[in-house]
Design a protein that fits this description.
By secondary structure, this protein is an alpha/beta fold. It has a single domain, classed as Spore Coat Polysaccharide Biosynthesis Protein SpsA, Chain A. Helix content is 43%, strand content 19%. The protein has 10 helices and 8 strands. An 8-stranded mixed beta sheet has the order 3-2-1-4-7-6-8-5. Helix 4 packs across helix 10, helix 5 packs across helix 7 and helix 8 crosses helix 10. The chain is globular, with a radius of gyration of 18 Å. It starts with a strand and ends with a helix.
Length: 258
């Protein structure tokens, strides 16, 4: 069985997300961690009521799931048609193609960035790369969360919003290097279309990222990622991508260092 795990805070897109899941064929369960369980009325969902940071929400979903494999989603990400059928369970972890929904400038650049990462920067490494698995074998997540909870004090663990996914992959990768890639787009993302929302989100990411300074994961702050290879993009597209990186990076650094 596949466990599909979703932390939910605002619930803006949750109907779309759940409809995309329950239109699939396969043996699966859905576990949702949210402070607002009433937003999932009418769906066969296991709800864990909690108001907590994203890393802890993912841990709670894992602890309340039963599947041999676990698919970690977000409340802004929904499944493409037949996504569950196309998920390969021949690896301990699986990276899948994702794209952005929306036609604003920031949406288009975020989508282009995803393509650039998948096509030209597809290093599978939690420290040097940008790709993150969505599908994990249960025993791999058992190992990852066990180590994260041992190394991160409880009061910090429950506050981390970012980099939750990278932390999980970092420990999972220490346990297993068996990571597969499905390039087909199986997950679609409702990103932030407005400049203000993007900057606000990445400022918050920077604020929670610096919590790692008090943990053994300070390495994630100090290791410089290699520069993105912007292969096969035009000069106009490069300017657009660098604009996106500035819109994300400046507020992130402000949150990290202020």
């Amino acid at each position: 069985m596949l466990s599909i795990e979703i932390p939910v805070t605002h619930g803006k897109y949750i109907k779309t997300v759940l409809d995309s899941i329950f239109s699939q064929k396969g043996d699966f369960e859905v576990i949702m961690v949210t402070p607002r369980p009433e937003i999932v009325n009418g769906y066969d969902v296991k709800v864990v009521k909690a108001d907590t940071g994203l890393l802890n929400a993912r841990y709670l979903a894992h602890e309340n799931s039963n599947g041999e494999y676990e698919l970690i989603l977000d409340e802004t990400r929904y499944l493409s048609q037949n996504a569950i059928k196309l998920l390969s369970q021949n690896h301990d972890m699986l990276i899948v193609g994702e794209d952005e929904v929306g036609n604003s400038f920031l949406d288009r650049m975020a989508n282009l960035d995803k393509k650039v990462i998948m096509e030209c920067n597809n290093i599978v490494d939690p420290l040097r790369g940008y790709l993150l698995p969505r599908l994990f074998k249960r025993e791999v997540l058992d190992y990852a969360f066990d180590n994260l909870r041992k190394k991160i004090p409880k009061e910090i663990f429950e506050r981390i919003v970012h980099p939750d996914h990278q932390l999980i992959f970092y420990e999972a990768f220490n346990h297993s290097k068996d990571v597969g890639i499905v390039r087909e787009v199986l997950i679609r993302h409702f990103g932030d279309s407005s400049l203000f929302n993007v900057m606000k989100k990445y400022y918050r990411y920077g604020k929670t990222h610096k919590l790692l300074r008090e943990t053994p994961y300070n390495e994630l702050l100090n290791v410089g990622r290699r520069k993105r290879d912007l292969c096969s993009v035009s000069l106009k597209e490069k300017i657009g991508l660098y604009t996106l990186y500035a819109v994300r990076g400046i507020p992130f650094l402000l949150g990290l260092y202020l």
